[in-house]
Amino acid sequence: MNLKQLTSLIAVAENNFSISHAAEQLHMVQSAVSQQISRLEEEIGTQIFIRKGKRLSGLSPAGEEIVHYAYRAIANTNSILEIGRDQINQVEGKLRIGATHTQAQYILPPVIKAFSQEYPNIELQIHQGSPKQLVNKAIHDEVDLSICTEALGEHPDLVSISSYRWNRVLIARPDHPILNLSLITLEQLCKHPIVTYVYGFTGREVFSDAFKQALLKPKIVLSAADTDVIKTYVRNGMGIGIIASMAYKKQHDSDLVFRDLSHLFPWETTKIAYQKDKYLRIHQQRFIELFQLTVSDLKAVSKPLGYQ
Amino acid sequence: MNLKQLTSLIAVAENNFSISHAAEQLHMVQSAVSQQISRLEEEIGTQIFIRKGKRLSGLSPAGEEIVHYAYRAIANTNSILEIGRDQINQVEGKLRIGATHTQAQYILPPVIKAFSQEYPNIELQIHQGSPKQLVNKAIHDEVDLSICTEALGEHPDLVSISSYRWNRVLIARPDHPILNLSLITLEQLCKHPIVTYVYGFTGREVFSDAFKQALLKPKIVLSAADTDVIKTYVRNGMGIGIIASMAYKKQHDSDLVFRDLSHLFPWETTKIAYQKDKYLRIHQQRFIELFQLTVSDLKAVSKPLGYQ
DNA sequence: TCAGCTTACGGCTCACGTAACAATA
DNA sequence: TATTGTTACGTGAGCCGTAAGCTGA
Lengths: 308, 308
Description:
2 copies of one chain form a homodimer.
Chain A: H1 3-14, H2 19-26, H3 30-44, E1 49-52, E2 55-59, H4 61-88, E3 93-99, H5 101-118, E4 122-128, H6 131-139, E5 145-148, E6 158-166, E7 168-172, H7 186-190, E8 193-197, H8 204-213, E9 219-224, H9 227-235, E10 240-244, E11 257-260, E12 268-275, H10 282-295
Parallel strand pairs in A: 3-4, 3-5, 8-9, 8-10
Antiparallel strand pairs in A: 1-2, 5-12, 6-12, 7-10, 7-11
Helix pairs in contact in A: 1-2, 1-3, 1-4, 2-3, 5-10
The first copy, chain A, binds a DNA duplex through helix 3.
C-alpha cells in the first residue's frame, strides 16, 4: 500500500465515484487512477467500490470503513509536512477558517484584524457554510478550523474547544408595542410575527424547543441563515426579530431597539474545532488564542469559557 | 513522502537510533534505510534526528512530534489491511493480548477457553508486563488489546473500555490472630507485617493512599508484582497478604483464609484498551465481548460496568 | 455511439543493493 | 581497528501516460 493509492481512493470517493473526475482533480490520467484503485483493491483483497458493470456507483461496507482510515492516514502525513513547514518558516502559510455568517460578520472581524497584523504574510481564507457543512469541511481538511455553535463537539473525529457563551436578543422597530412590556415572556413573543434563523443555524433548534416545552407555538413568518437578512425584514416591519446577542451592534442598528431574552432561552456555546489528526501550525494555534482573547472582551453579553 | 519512509523512521526510533539495527529489523541494508531517512528529512525540510558527527543520538523536538504522527499514519494503513483480512477470512488470524500477571492468571483463563473454542484457528498470544509497559505495547501495536487496572484510560491515544470492578481481600494462615477480629480496620492491618503488590501493579497506589489519608503507616515486609508470590510468602508465615479479590480461588487456596476488605479501600476498575487508530477485527471485537460476559459472572466479588 | 472504465505496453523515475568512503569510539 | 553512517552507481521494480479494447446507457 502507499499514500498515492489512498489519495486516489479519497479523490474518487469525493468525486461521486467518478475515476475521470478524480483523475482531473489529481492532475493524472484516468488509467493511472484506475490502476491505483485496482492495485489497492488487490492488495486489500476486497472490493472497495460497488460496481455496476464497469462503472463505480458507491462504496461497499468495507469501503466505507477503509475510506475513513484513509482520511486519517493522509491527515497524519499532512501533519508531518506541516511540522516541517513550521520549522522552516514561521511567518508564511495560510489559514482557512470555516465559519457561519454570524461568526464571520459579528465575531471574526477584530480577530482577523489582530491576526493579520501579527502575520501579514499569511493568507487568510474564510469559508462560509452551515454548521453541518463546516463539520465536513473540517473533517475533510478543506478548512483548518471551524467556528460555530452547532454540530461541532459531537463528532468523534474533531477536537473542539469551547469559546464563548451567548443567548438571544429581541430586535424591533422603536414603535413596536412589545417594547412597552416591562418583562417579555414566551407567551408575549407568540403574539407577534417573528423573524429568526432557519433550522441548523445559530441555535434555532434550542430556540424552537423552548417554545415546544412551554407548549407554545411561535409565529415564525420568515427564517434566514443570515442575521443581516433578519434585520432587513424587521426594518421593513415584517415582525420582531430574535437574533444572537452578539449580532446586535449599537452603532449600526440604532434604528432598532433591542431587549435581552436570556431569561427565556438556554445559553449556547460557540466552539472552535479542528480535525483530531491535524497538527496545528504555530500561527493556527495563535489564531485560536487571539480568538479566545477577543471573545473574552464580549463579557457584556456573554461569558467566555476555558478549554474543555 | 511515502509509508516506507515512515516505517523506516519508526524502526530507527525504536532501535535506539541505530540505522543498522533498524535495517536488520526491516530486512533491508543499512544504506537503504539511511537513504529513506535522508529523503524524508529532505522533504520535510528539517532534521528529525539529532546527530553527533554521523551517528544518530536522539530525536529533535520536531522529530518527536513527527514520530507520533508517523505511528498514527502507519496504524491507520494497518487498519485498512485488517479490514481486508476481515472480509476474506473471518476465522484465521491472531490475537495479541497484553495483561498483567493477575489478569492472565485469574481472569483470562475462562475467556481464553471460550475464545479458542469459538476460533480454533486463531493464534493467541499473551504478553505480560507492567501496566505502563502494556500501555506502550498497545500504542506501538505490539499487542492488539491491553487489559489492566492502571495507566490505561488516561492515555489520549488509547480507547479504553471499563470492564469490571474489584476490591481487595486479606489472606492469612488459619492460625493468624487477625482472623479473630469481627471487623478488620486499617489500624488493625498496621499491627501485622503485610505482603502485597509492588507500586505500579494491581492498585498498589490506591492501597497505599488509603493508609496515608488515615495517617497510618502499614508494615509492608514484601511486595511483588505477582499474586502467586504473595501467596507463597503468606503460606511461609511472612505475614498477612492483601490481594485483589479475584485472585483468591477457593479450590486452590483452601489452606488460606480470606476476609473481604472492600470497606477499607476504594473500588478499582479494570479496563480493556486498544489504540485509537486501530481497526479491531471481528474476532478481536468478539474477544472483548467474551471478556465482558465472563467478568459479569464474577458478581460475587465485583460489579461489572458497561462501556464508558 | 458515446462516456467511462480497464488492459496492454513503453518509457522513465526512483528505490534497493553493492561497494567504496568517512568518521567515531 | 571495528562499527556505523553516508555517498556513488548500476539494476530492476513499479508507476505514469498513450492508446487500444470493452461495456453499458
